[in-house]
Amino acid sequence: MQCPKDKNITLVDGTLSNKLSVKCCPECQGNWIPGEEYQTWQIRQPQQHAKPEMLAQTLKVNFVQPPLDNKAALCPECQHYLSRAKVHYRTPFYVERCTYCGGVWCDKGEWEVLEKLGLHTTIEQMFSPEWQMRAREQEYAEKERQATIDKLGPEVATMVFALAEVLEQHPNGEFGVTYLMRRFDK
User: Fold this and answer.
1) Alpha-carbon span 119 to 87, nearest angstrom
2) Which of 21, 94, 102, 157 could cross-link 149 (Cys pair, CB 3.0–4.6 Å)?
3) Is the Cβ–Cβ distance between 30 and 3 less than 8 Å?
4) Percent of the chain surpassing pLDDT 70
5) Are residues 32 and 112 in the same domain?
6) What are the backbone dihedrals phi and psi of residue 160, each rounded to the nearest 5 degrees, phi first?
7) What is the pLDDT of residue 66?
């Protein structure tokens, strides 16, 4: 079986967390997780439901996007194109999956990030349109929050965020928002 990123390299046997059998590329250090192996391993793991909000967690992970992450690839088992799901992490990356046989390709370091985020047991969820839409919304909200901090400064931004939370919880919060909009609509 050849590496999906470099067809001249033969994959070798390896294991990931909790005895998950994989095929590793000795050159790029990526991992091919056969679909059946993943499903069998997944059943033995504690059940958890992943949410895109998990991506906003602050983790101390030294992750650099692999140079081959943007390269399209074929499944090393059945030669179908690998579908890609963007992981909207601080350093975004793609996990690839074969929609035909269910195998998963993780470039160097990606499995470790998925594991620390708690997403490694629910990889198939990241390929759903709902997940990708919610992840994009989460990413946009984080960018909007950072832009607010950049424009207003941390002190004023903190007050704005606190007021927004108060108004969201208040039964007549929209009146407060309307008042503020009128004040600035001159």
Assistant:
1) 10
2) 157
3) yes
4) 90
5) yes
6) -65, -45
7) 77
Domain that holds residue 158: 153-184
HEC readout, the chain: CECCCCCCCECEEEEEHHHEEEEECCCCCCEEECHHHHHHHHHCCCCCCCCHHHHHCCCCCCCCCCCCCCCCCECCCCCCEEEEEEECCCCCEEEEEECCCCCEEECCCHHHHHHHHCCCCCHHHHHCHHHHHHHHHHHHHHHHHHHHHHHHCHHHHHHHHHHHHHHHHCCCHHHHHHHHHHHHCC
Q: Residues with Cβ < 8 Å from 97, sequence gap 6 or more? A: 82, 83, 85, 103, 104, 105, 123, 124, 127
Question: Does position 129 have pLDDT exceeding 70, yes or no?
Answer: yes
Residues 161 and 119 in one domain: no
Residue 11 has pLDDT above 60, yes or no: yes
Q: Which residues contact 27 (CB under 8 A, 6 or more apart)?
A: 3, 6, 9
The residue with tokens 């007549």 is: 172
What pairing do the DSSP bridges indicate for beta strands 20-24 and 104-106? Answer: unpaired
